[in-house]
Prior knowledge:
Distance between the termini of chain B: 30 Å
Radius of gyration of chain B: 21 Å
Oligomer: heterodimer
Largest sheet of chain B: 2 strands, antiparallel
Strand content of chain A: 15-25%
Shape of chain A: globular
Radius of gyration of chain A: 25 Å
Helix content of chain A: 25-40%
Structural class of chain B: mainly alpha
Largest interface: A-B, 37 and 31 residues
Number of strands of chain A: 24
Distance between the termini of chain A: 32 Å
Number of helices of chain B: 13
Helix content of chain B: over 70%
Number of strands of chain B: 4
Amino acid sequence: MHQQALQQQASIGGGSLRFNGIGKTFPGVRALSDISFEARPGSVHALMGENGAGKSTLLKILGGSYSPNSGNLQIGERTLSFKSTADSIAAGVAVIHQELHLVPEMSVAENLLLGHMPNRLGLINRRALLRQAGELLKGLADEIDPSTRLGNLSLGQRQLVEIAKAMSRNAHVIAFDEPTSSLSAREIDRLMAIISRLRDEGRVILYVSHRMEEIFRVCDAVTVFKDGRFVRTFEDMADLSHDRLVTCMVGRDIQDIYNYRPREKQGASLRVTGLLGPGLQEPVSFAVEKGEILGFFGLVGAGRTELFRLLSGLTRSSAGSLQLEGQPLALKSPRDAISAGILLCPEDRKKEGIVPLSSVGENINIGARPQHVNLGCLIQGRWERDNAQQQIHAMNVKTPSADQQMMYLSGGNQQKAILGRWLSMPMKVLLLDEPTRGIDIGAKSEIYQIIYNLAAQGIAVIVVSSDLMEVMGIADRIVVMSEGAITGELMRDQADESQLLQLALPRSRH
Amino acid sequence: MSSESSLRAPRQGLNLRRFFDEWVMVLAALGIFVLCALLIDNFLSPLNMRGLGLAISTVGIAACTMLFCLASGHFDLSVGSVLACAGVIAGIVMRDSDSVFLGIAAALAMGLVVGLINGIVIAKLRINALITTLATMQIVRGLAYIFSNGKAVGVSNEGFFVFGNGQLFGVPVPILITLGCFIFFGWLLNYTTYGRNTLAIGGNQEAALLAGVHVDRTKIIIFAVHGLIGALAGVVLASRMTSGQPMIGQGFELTVISACVLGGVSLSGGIGMIRHVIAGVLILAIIENAMNLKNIDTFYQYVIRGTILLLAVIIDRMKRR
């Protein structure tokens, strides 16, 4: 396999990809420092690390979206500095991002040849367009008709279109950023086969994923990052064990980030009975007690976020009932949920959580403010200042001052500020949707401590997470969802990894 | 404590930048004022200062509430038509009822209703603000022509002229009303939940909704108040001209929006302060005044005004890089 790779390498015309001392800083944040490693042609090189370790930043530098503050890239003998994505493409690099850069309203063929459609004086030759597109898809995704609207394809098929686009430019370096996060098992199998083929053609493949099984299945080498720094490269996968890789990524034992503390339960809190609504396929029933941390595990699209949207009043339920501390509860809007004491930290912090242009203080105070105004609308300056200070202190939000704009804070500090927003208000149930996504380890473990403290004060905490380790690490009890329904429930001491995964996998696949 | 020092460095840089962002247009307005005072004869004469103040008044009043529309991520094109229609309605009602109070009340009520319609359609039916206010702009302009038969409605009621031509301590009333609006709406934006919620909605509507803000209600209030204040500007203008004119204020909405944006209010929402509005209104008015004093042809004035606006937004864009 590798010999063949070496033969083909010459025909594509590129050597290995080297990162030489790459560094990148953003205002107030050092995202990458002194990253140096080499990815060889004819091999699949995995980049691993916790969220926020700097993998995505590195791929953005490779793709020309960011330019590094220091260091350079080398492909073969050529030293490169990309000023734009066009430079990166011209150098034979294709980065296949998590969010695909395709136009859903246009046809597959138009997407594939965007920027260089066959034309005469600007008039597009449709026959040539479809023919060329068909050739690009051949062997990759023969079943896709180039004239279909891209929006009609599945996510897996769209990704294949993106790969075909990279192939059309005969890219020598192809980087995949979490390519399997929204694919079905069959689509993953096909993607793995294609990646192996691209490797055998002598290309440099970079592969970013959190899924261990994929890394061990398809990759030939792994480079581990932590907090924007290079940790080490493993060149021999045969020697590498799962645990060793995890320990290397985390940089300490897994146990002590969670630092689980058992608590007393303090009586009934939220009870959900037969709840149905958008995103739920079967009636959902569960109960959580005061002082309990209930984990919701499942794959992306299992319906957990949709359940949270129902519980926080963002969407209306079509059937079922809610009880809070024995009292029936009807939710018509987020305000109803908030006044009942059910507070949500949303999954997509940037889109639904923070107001980026406003100050940290403003972001904290916006929730509790209505209880602290004069004459129904006049802001109390003193309360605003004190509350912001108090929450910044209590949550250990790292910010130069309460006046700093929210957008300059790191993800972890933004999350702590949102927690601070809710802690200024009367709270009974806290809904946390992926509370530590994109957050560095230090802030993670602080957030877990906050969660334990809240639970100890008698608040029912429901945590949705796709991170199996996290759910097992912090929850007292774990509910598993799959395809819009609850598929199982396990106590903390009964839960093991394979059992939870088994419950989370879609049943229709078997 | 290396982490602290690494946080402190950007803080100073950012604060300087923020200071620059927030005050640069105010400084520019003052600079232009000083420059005109030095270079143009008669610029500082009491007569010209009065004229300048009056020129600021109509745009200034309407810009205060346009600030709220822009800060919430929307805008309102109907304000020019509301301006004209308010003058016409005030004129007609005063002619028929001989009551200044009723005339003004009717004009303001019309503005409020148009604003409410805008707000409800935009907030509740989720129709784009551009289309909604483009439609009401034409409807209200049409109504102004219909009510007035296409002709100016003269006002003979002396009591009405106070708003446009009266003085208090030597300062014309329209200027006082404008100053009052600047102070009131500046205060409203900074010190009330309504103002803070407006900025939060413009900054991130989803987040505001999830934080418990009455998003729809706030939007409706924003547009209703804007309609009301647009009508107030129309009443003041009609009083100055002693007639309600149905054709007046074509393109007024664009002048108001340019003044806000020129001063630094973000077109995409979330950023806006009353000093932005004051600076923008001042710059536009001073430059227009200077061009008039220098006898620059009106045709050229359009080109110059457009160029200034374009330069201002380009500078703004580069500043944010």
